[in-house]
Protein: Outer membrane protein beta-barrel domain-containing protein
Organism: Metallibacterium scheffleri
Amino acid sequence: MKNRTLTIVAAGLLALAGTASAQTPQTSFQGWYNGAKTGYSQTSGDAVNSTGSWTLGYELGYNWQSQGGFVFGLDGYYDYNAATDHDVSGTTGRLSIGSQAYGMDTKYGWASGPVLYYAKVGYGGLSGMGDASGSGSGFHGGLGIEYKFTPKWSVTGEWLYEAGNTGPANASLTNNNFTVGMNYYF
């Protein structure tokens, strides 16, 4: 399931990049935007196996774009990573683990016509859900591509890695989120 999902996301991003390279008008990524995303979250933690589930997210941000196409942005985000059952190492037990992640990112990118290639780095909180109660904080990062199909609307594909320590035992919890979404520029 995980490999099939990754293959579908990768194929979609390549098709998006190929379609975008055929267009010539310069589109600006400057300004305020907000967006929603959905996709696949691969969650793992101390002493539990890695299991996938669905994720939903929201972001609000602002981009500055130079004449040369370089983009610098700031955004706030919230991700809901649905709880799913995980096997516990060394036992026959199972735990239901999910998370909510929130924080701030800096975005560094390069725009080529209607396509923006970017990397994100930020700091945020991670709250465990289900049997992984508690919260913590940590750094996160990711890569993405954004395609503006009108002056106000764009589609995105993104990978984001989030990690933090949660619960009374200060256990490690990580998410690899693979999402697609829509952004609206004000």
